[in-house]
Amino acid sequence: MKLIYVLSLLLLLFTLPAFAKQPIRVADIGVMGLASHDLFQWNSRTRENEENGRFDLSTIFDYADGTKIHQGGNPKNSSNTAVYSVTQSLVSYYSGKKATLLMSREVTEEQAHIIARQQTVKFFIGMVKESYERFTNSRFPNYALAQNVNDNEQAVMRALHDILPGKIIVNRNLAQEVLVVTDYKLAMTQLSASEMMQIVKFFDGKYDEEYLHVVVPGFPDFQVINLQEIDQKFIADQTNYNLDHMLMELHFYGNFPFFGNLVDFTSFGFHLENLFAKGICNKYADGSPNPWNTVEIECY
User: Fold this and answer.
1) CATH of domain 2-279
2) Who contacts 106 (Cβ-Cβ below 8 Å, separation ≥6)?
3) Which of 29, 146, 238, 252 has the greatest number of CB atoms lying within 10 Å of its CB?
4) Which residues constitute the signal peptide according to the record (predicted)?
């Protein structure tokens, strides 16, 4: 069975067009990570997604009834330095827009918040489009879907943890240092523009070692988790996919630097396109408008 699976991948390899792939950078890791947080908040007890599946930056602006905006909203957004850095750049962008509006003395505090959040979401969607295209080597969807996000789509985002870097290089005290991304003590490290532009290793079908024993602070004891095992369990329990097979496909994809795009090459890539088409929809799955997304594209 495994041989047949590999042969089918090889057949696909020689039937798809070849296009040079763009390098993926630390900034893309942060953007795609925050995008995932904005679309999904998995409750393992109820086995339900508690986010709304739309790009509206609710993960920042609506967490704790909006009282944690300047801290980046959901604590997940401070879980690693790449996501934290992107989150803080968006918070700064929002604060600057809001301050400018208030200085005009033409709008109220609430009006300034609404306009600034809309502008920040628009800016974020622009970031998402660029990072998506580098991640997938495929065009960002030019259509929007008004449906709910689903577990298959979350499974694909989890499989893409393959590309998460365990370490990145930072410049501190006039010297280069290695920052372990999973070190909770360093998670809220703000990266510079040059550090965010670092190229990360491409898809290779393996989680970096650091993600196999992540120390999570807690009371009374710290907890050590294996991200790959957590993802494997979710994918097995919630979908018909198998993480090992998904990683094998990513390994094949990553080993051909001038070959195809992730959406067409893998058996699961189409879910990624559907997910982001849902994310940019300017109305929620129940039909109500998404007031924060000003993208003018019809949702179906």
Assistant:
1) 1.10.640.10
2) none
3) 29
4) 1-20
Residue 203, CA distances (Å) to 133, 255, 256, 260 in order: 15, 8, 10, 13
Longest dimension (CA), the chain: 69
DSSP 17-47: ---PPPPPBHHHHHHHHHHHHHH--EETTTT
- Residue pair 167/198 in contact (Cβ under 8 Å)? The answer is no
Cβ atoms of 162 and 170 closer than 8 Å: no
- Whole-prediction pTM value? 0.91
DSSP 191-220: PPHHHHTPBPP---S---GGGGSEEE--SS
Tens of pLDDT, residue by residue, the chain (300 residues):
554 554 455 455 444 444 567 899 999 999 999 999 999 999 989 999 999 999 999 999 999 999 999 999 999 999 899 999 999 999 999 999 999 999 999 999 999 999 999 999 999 999 999 999 999 999 999 999 999 999 999 999 999 999 999 999 998 888 899 999 999 999 999 999 999 999 999 999 999 999 999 999 887 889 999 999 999 999 999 999 999 999 999 999 998 766 689 999 999 999 999 999 999 999 999 999 999 998 888 898
Domains of the chain by residue range: 2-279
Report residue 271 as tokens.
């879910």
Query: What b/e readout covers 75-109, taking b as 16+ CB neighbours within 10 angstroms?
Result: ebbbbbbbbbbbbbbbbeebeebbeebbeeeeeee
Q: Say which residues have a Cβ less than 8 Å from residue 138's Cβ, sequence separation at least 6.
A: 132, 261, 262, 263, 264, 269, 273
Residue type, 107: V
Residue in the structure block whose two tokens are 């396109």 = 273
Please provide residue 144's backbone torsions phi and psi, each rounded to the nearest 5 degrees: -130, 145
